[in-house]
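User: Fold this; tokens only.

Assistant: Input:
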Amino acid sequence: MEKRVLEGLEPHKVFHFFEDLCRIPHGSGNTKAISDYCVSFAKERGLRYIQDNSNNVIILQDGTPGYEDHPTVILQGHMDMVCAKEPDVAFDFSTQPLCLQVKDGYVSATGTTLGGDDGIAVAYALAVLDDPSIPHPPLEAVFTVDEEVGLLGAAALDCSPLKGRLFLNMDSEEEGILTVSCAGGLRSDTVLPVTAGHGCGICCSLTLKGFSGGHSGSDIHLGRGNTNVLIGQILQQLSSKYTLQLQSLEGGKQDNAIPAHSCASFLLPADQREAARADVEAWWTQVKAQYAQTDPNCTLIYHDGGEVCGTAFTVEDSKKITDLIAAVPNGVQAMSKDIPGLVESSMNLGVLSVEPDCLRLTVSLRSSVNSEKDRMRAQLAEIARQYGADFSCRGEYPAWEYRKDSPLRDTMVEIYTQQYGKPPVVEAIHAGLECGLFSNKLPGLDCVSFGPDILEIHTPREHLPIASVQRTWAYLLEVLKAL
């Protein structure tokens, strides 16, 4: 059997199950195998379980001696992960296990995302269910799918079997923070019909890479460069001045990740080569200065080669494509008027692609105010209408509203203060969590989200501090004991 990379780490069972999960491909939309793994876990231990048609799994376990009649606790996390890799790494997320490594007190995956968001939650829950010596009330472990693409599993889950109203969501990525409210959101798709034809000219290619990227909710306020937006800016500038015929354009893989890599190719007349190159270099000088702090490793690669003839969009369609990209709002749209420092509303142009017959844009839209979410949706729809594009939305989920009276929150604050010698931060976040959907489906739900530190999530640089996993495990056990 292949040697286990995490074998010597503590807590042993947590890292054992986490490594098992990392060996199973489980990107969003590819969750049957990891769902079946959780079912097999339950069967092997004689636990009751439910697996639905969406691949969501619920595992039920009685309380330990002395806790049988205590209120049921729900442990919840999602099974799917964001699949992102370095551009030069050959890796197939649909078939290959992650290549784990341990270095300097961190667990990471070579060249790819790690899936600590939210594999560590599933590993925590399995480790609790696996150990009969851990005192706890009756448990309902809820593992959902496709959270990263719109909370689709939680939206589809039939919650009627769930009896618990104390809800521990383990999908937060900062130790010491208890999250008690989050934004709602949706995905929007804009499709602009265009038709590829034929063109001749100097073949030019432009690539933006090395940007920091990050989570489109929790990192949107950091001002990091969005390569889809930036490549749209320079292409619009060039198409406004020169006879540009776009050939290809692609950027971003996940709408809830700030894109860190985008590329385009286009044709220009030979006599416009030098002027266009000068414009690109001048623009890049400004971009480098603007993002020197947030994206210190950002890189532009620009080539203008020989004259070629081939498939290309007309000058008119090329300008229409670049104008539409430039018209899409991006980044923080409003800050909260009630909570200082909290982003209220944002948009992220996460996925951009040109196909032979259309331009496709996907935007992740978030807001803690439903009326603002509706306003931004209408704004994007109007932009699409102006350019003759089709507009649709999917994966809408509600905001998780703050609960003033929360005995669960009070208990968790008290235990954290005892364990760490200082109180935790209790906050609302701009990122989306499944807690809003569960709160809508389970009246009276008392819910808190927490977790260990997971650094640079949704990027190939994601890494998980071992010590934080250990402390959060000890905290989880004390919370269960107190409940």
